Design the sequence.
């Protein structure tokens, strides 16, 4: 399979509220808008808020968003009234994470990768790996 592009589709119960959350609270940049939906830039992919959902939240899906400076992002979002489901902490796997939820309850995991974490090690510098 040759994947040319990808995006995550969210079908919220209230599209206007969810679109405003991702646009105004998280501050995601808009890639494009069309009747019935908005597509946001999401690092190397896209997040599309489209249509209307019926089921509501599920804890089986999370958005994993890597940020440069987790304490700064948390402070900015708290300044906008965001309440975190879990405050920032170092996880046993070595990543710094803070958890929040969108208006439908979709978990958003904000992640900062510490400088000494294996995910930041350039394997080109370590040919034995």
Sequence:
């Amino acid at each position: 399979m040759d994947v040319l592009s990808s995006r995550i589709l969210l079908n919220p119960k209230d599209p206007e509220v969810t679109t405003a959350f991702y646009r105004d609270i998280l501050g995601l940049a808009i890639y494009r808008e069309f009747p019935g939906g908005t597509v946001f830039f999401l690092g190397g992919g896209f997040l599309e808020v489209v249509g209307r959902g019926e089921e509501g939240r599920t804890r089986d899906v999370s958005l994993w968003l890597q940020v440069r400076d987790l304490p700064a992002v948390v402070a900015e979002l708290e300044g906008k009234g965001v309440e975190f489901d879990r405050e920032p902490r170092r996880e046993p796997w070595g990543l710094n994470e803070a958890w929040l939820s969108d208006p439908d309850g979709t978990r958003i995991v904000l992640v900062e990768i510490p400088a000494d974490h294996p995910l930041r090690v350039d394997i080109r510098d370590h040919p034995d790996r």
Observations:
- The chain has a mean pLDDT of 89.
- Residues 15-25 form the longest helix (11 residues).
- DSSP finds two helices and eight strands in the chain.
- The longest strand covers residues 37-42.
